[in-house]
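A protein record pairs a chain with a discrete description of its three-dimensional fold. The following entry can be read in just this way:
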Amino acid sequence: KLAHGRGGVLGVGQRHVHVNQLLKNLRHQRARGGLVGGHRQRGSVLLARRGPIALGEARGVFPAWPRSVYAARGRRLRNATRTAIAPTGTIGIIAGTSASIEPLFALAYRRTGVLGGETLVEINPLLERHLQRCGLDARRVLDAVRERGRLGDVPDVPEDLKRLFVTALEIPPERHLAIQAAFQRHVDNAVSKTINLPHDAAPRDVARIYRRAWELGVKGVTVYRYGSKGAQVLELGVDEAPHQFDHASRCDPEECRI
């Protein structure tokens, strides 16, 4: 309460970053994907600063302004911080898109214990479009993805398509952190980020991730080892009936599912 009263905190953030990259054929873990994300966040910062500057001139600066870095720069801001990237998990479900700056957890998975305790079946709708565009047997590939949850180990699929539709567990921790750092450079507060680890990850892997996160100056890092809990919210693969699978794969990424 004291910090909020002295600073006037806002929280302009991001969502559907990975889906936006898929629509533009940008690989999530490539340097260009991270650069585009960073430039996008920088644009959000500039937009989020306009209001506080105008309000600062009209109504005065935040109480702690004289002791802030903005006083030395002559920037009269109404709010001490303007941007933060929250998890946006539930918002992503409602909007039918990816959460925050996170990559897709999988291309086919179950989401349990959310939105009133229901189990939701998630099949990525953009994958089917890309398969058809590439002239591949969409039904065969989607059946395999339905079992595995990802495209990486499905045979006879072009490597560039596998790299485009990379999922959270296929991305090395170092790349997860690099993507977060690209956004963090332009965010006042924390950037929510989950580093997904395989089931056989060791404590030293977790220690290495947190040390690297500290070196990069990022905030809001969470590590989750797949299968470390008896019941988890997201599970790879689905075992739904074909008609349910077809319906989920036809949903538009920008269409509300509720």
User: Anything to note?
Assistant: DSSP finds eleven helices and five strands in the chain. Residues 2-16+28-73 form one domain. The mean pLDDT is 77.
